[in-house]
């Protein structure tokens, strides 16, 4: 069974890396994609690569290891990077929703609202906010004393499984974790729902073609948002209790969702598909010239 899971999750991880790297290459290579929407999409692809890499390689290696261990500082690093890139994904998805709101509800002012400087500021705030969140989360967890029990009932170092090993009262830390992780997830999700509600109402007066294009773009984004936010809210917006379902849910949003993101954005986005075709055609024509 472990060898089967090793092969399966190795395949998933390769798809995550290849799919997201392909989106990064496409966005950077095609000048037609140098727009706010694709700037944030490239940020999302980079986050997915790093976020999945925080947990997947160790999990894959453990499938073929007799002793599934991690050092103390390895655990600290894994928790910090996992929450840093996970929170960055939350903020980037929220900013992407704001970008769609500005593009659909204020088309005449869109270039002013989402200027190059505004995009850089929003992306920077997303990364800085994620850094602050991760630092606080990791500090709260590892300032507690840990005693003899050293078995983490999880496949990576996350807050709730590690808190179960502490030999001190974790009530306050649990409440702070809910306030830090759970409320960030829930708050951003509610902001996203509100923005899409406003977008849907604004589309009623548009032409059918305009509605179709807007709904296609927003549909892709909302699918990604649902796949990521719902598991996060389930895991973090509750006290430090663990359920058998937690590991399966965690696998979904740490490995499956980063794998699905590039597929969702490429299969439902005509601009990205056309850009990939242009890059592929250019590559083929260059090879033919070299042979000639």
Task: Give structural notes.
The protein is 78% helix and 0% strand. With 292 residues, the protein is mostly helical. It has helices at 2-29, 36-53, 56-62, 72-105, 110-113, 116-142, 159-163, 171-202, 208-236, 245-267, 270-291.
Short structural summary:
The chain has 292 residues and is mainly alpha-helical.
Number of strands: 0
- The protein's oligomeric status is single chain
The appropriate CATH architecture is Up-down Bundle
Identify the overall geometry: globular
- Class computed from helices, strands and strand pairing: mainly alpha
CATH fold description: Rhopdopsin 7-helix transmembrane proteins
Number of helices: 11
The CATH class is identified as Mainly Alpha
Largest sheet: none
Write down the secondary-structure element order: HHHHHHHHHHH
- What number of domains? 1
Mean pLDDT: 85
Protein name: Olfactory receptor
Membrane topology: Multi-pass membrane protein
Function: Putative odorant or sperm cell receptor.
Transmembrane segments: 6-28, 40-60, 80-98, 110-130, 182-203, 215-237, 249-267
Reconstruct the topology from this structure.
Blueprint: H1 2-29, H2 36-53, H3 56-62, H4 72-105, H5 110-113, H6 116-142, H7 159-163, H8 171-202, H9 208-236, H10 245-267, H11 270-291
What brief labels describe this structure?
olfactory receptor activity; mainly alpha; Rhopdopsin 7-helix transmembrane proteins; globular; 292 residues
């Amino acid at each position: 069974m472990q060898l089967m899971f090793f092969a399966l999750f190795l395949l998933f991880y390769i798809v995550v890396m290849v799919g997201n790297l392909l989106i990064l290459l496409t966005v950077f290579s095609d000048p037609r994609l140098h727009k706010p929407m694709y700037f944030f999409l490239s940020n999302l692809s980079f986050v997915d690569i790093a976020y999945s890499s925080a947990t997947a390689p160790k999990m894959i290696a453990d499938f073929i290891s007799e002793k599934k261990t991690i050092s103390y500082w390895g655990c600290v690093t894994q928790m910090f990077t996992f929450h840093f890139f996970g929170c960055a994904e939350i903020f980037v998805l929220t900013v992407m929703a704001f970008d769609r709101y500005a593009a659909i509800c204020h088309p005449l002012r869109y270039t002013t609202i989402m200027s190059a400087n505004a995009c850089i500021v929003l992306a920077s705030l997303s990364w800085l906010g994620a850094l602050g969140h991760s630092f606080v989360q990791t500090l709260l967890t590892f300032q507690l004393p840990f005693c003899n029990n050293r078995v983490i009932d999880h496949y990576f170092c996350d807050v709730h499984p590690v808190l179960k090993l502490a030999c001190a009262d974790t009530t306050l830390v649990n409440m702070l974790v809910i306030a830090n992780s759970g409320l960030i997830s829930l708050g951003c999700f509610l902001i996203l729902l509100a923005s899409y509600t406003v977008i849907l109402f604004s589309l009623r007066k548009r032409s059918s073609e305009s509605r179709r294009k807007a709904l296609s773009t927003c549909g892709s984004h909302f699918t990604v948002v649902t796949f990521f936010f719902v598991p996060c809210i389930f895991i973090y917006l509750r006290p430090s209790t663990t359920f058998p379902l937690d590991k399966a849910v965690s696998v979904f949003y740490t490995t499956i969702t980063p794998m699905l993101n590039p597929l969702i954005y490429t299969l439902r986005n005509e601009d990205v598909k056309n850009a990939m075709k242009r890059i592929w055609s250019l590559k083929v024509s260059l090879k033919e010239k070299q042979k000639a």
